[in-house]
Amino acid sequence: MKICLLIKDFAVGKKFLPDGRPTKSGAEIHGENHAVELIKLGHQVTIMTKKRFFSTKAREKLENGIDLVRLHPPIRWLEIFFRLLTTHNDFDAFYIIGTPKFSVWAIIFARFLSKKPVTLALTGKAEIFNAKNGWRNKILSTCTNYIATTREIRDGFIKNGGISPEKISILPHGIDTKKFPQSNEKIRRKLKISHGIDPNCKVLLFCARIVPDKGVDTLQKTWKILHKTFPTAILFVVGGGLTNLLDELRALSAEMDDSIKIIGEIDAPAEFYRLADVYIFPSRHEGLPTSLLEAMSCGLPAVTSDIGGCEDVISNDVTGFRVNSEDFAAFADKISILFTDDERRRRFGENSARLIRETCDFSIVMPKLAEILAR
User: Could you give the CA distance from residue 34 to residue 20 in angstroms, rounded to a whole number?
Assistant: First the structure.
């Protein structure tokens, strides 16, 4: 199957913005992962995205097999139509991630000219569109199939987009669980020692972008409580983000016996998932958080915000706990329970690892995605 994958951006150039945030969004990472995995299944994938920089090529073949096409402003709508009529006129299916404005022209082409299936996938609540607001949204509501990564997004498709439930599939974006193998107490102790930490001390992990929406303020308030009760515990903060917030965390660590270890942005966080005892995720809004899936794959019990996405994988007292995103005292209470209850922590971790392998591994997700795209 020849697939056209349309996505708003496909980051190039510098890895970080001037304020410290990583340049590549979650949706872009999902898009690249899906393209690579679909290619492994024998499909051909072309990504069409915006051309943002003069220096980037309009078209190139990437090492991972992706045919990348960058559409020129301000005539992206015309260029995409021209390419679909000429250089790229043999697609079997169209796959849109998010709601890039230029994608509506691909929908029009596919629905009314080539008669090929179009699948629209949303990975975040903020992307949910109202079909009654504007002509673009009306066209977005005419796709053949829809993919929601969470139940909350599925409900938004129905309520705001006016999409028939039978057109919607709930499908996680997936991860490669082989890169996030399940940990155990022996591995955790060994990794703690390798980082110069007492193997008997408890480790809390936060692994996400360091921005306000991820609940970094809640994280700091939670740690102030936990440090009083568990003075030897360590908080690892993994992820790139705003410089001022990272400085706040460093200052807080200095006040609290250097108990916070700031790691920064890394490409392979699995070591820290496997080292930690509990994962904290106080984000204020999410799609289906990739870092949470990765942590769970490693057998790490989690305390998360009670929001869409988290509720799809965190069942209270089964794989972890969900609490109000602003309730730092509740975060501290649930983490304290897990710090002191070895058996519950082990049980939650095993349940988490099993759930992610059974529902979110690429080997499960990608054949289902290919089947949906072909409908």
Answer: 27
- Domain residue extents for the chain: 2-174+362-373, 177-359
180, β-bridge pairs: none
Beta strands 67-71 and 59-61 are antiparallel
Transcribe 313-334 into DSSP letters.
Answer: H--BTTTEEEE-TT-HHHHHHH
**Residue 322 · residue 306 · CB < 8 Å:** yes
- 2-174+362-373 and 177-359 agree in CATH topology: yes
Residue 313, token pair as written in the block: 């994988």
Token couple for 173: 């974006």
Give the tens place of pLDDT for each residue, 42-92.
999 999 999 877 778 888 898 899 999 999 998 898 999 999 999 899 999
Nearest to 308 by CA among 335, 329, 289, 280: 289
CATH number of 2-174+362-373: 3.40.50.2000
Q: What is the CATH number of domain 177-359?
A: 3.40.50.2000
Please give the Cα distance from 101 to 157 (Å, whole number).
18
pTM for the whole thing? 0.93
Interior CA angle at 47 toward 42 and 53, to 5°? Answer: 150
For residues 166 and 188, is the Cβ–Cβ distance under 8 A? no
